[in-house]
Amino acid sequence: MEGSVPQEHPFVDVNDTDWFYEDVAYTFCRGILKGMDETHFQPQTAVTRGMVATVLHRLEECPEAPEADFVDVNPARYYWGGCSLGPSQGAGEGLRRRYLPAESSHYPPGSWLPYYTAMPPSGEKM
Prior knowledge:
Helix content: 25-40%
Number of strands: 0
Shape: elongated
């Protein structure tokens, strides 16, 4: 990533020799990605629709979203804001009132991370 400097992160499963190290540190330090728990990022875990919706929501600085009408999106789960915001923005439409947040997003693990970390915050030009 242009202009980036490796930063601290708490993940025991992300080493400074991993090709994605800087991307993980960058997104963690900015609150875009928070890991699977306090000390694990689990970089080989498949990316779900709920995860992608959450990243997009955080990149937009977590705007308030209208309540979504999905029967499978629990307001107490981390992906609530992203899954609720997507349809109001013309993205992340569900299927028959189901968002399917735990379903695979069909992206290989980590493949989308460099793209999203290269995106500027809302309103800034690239």
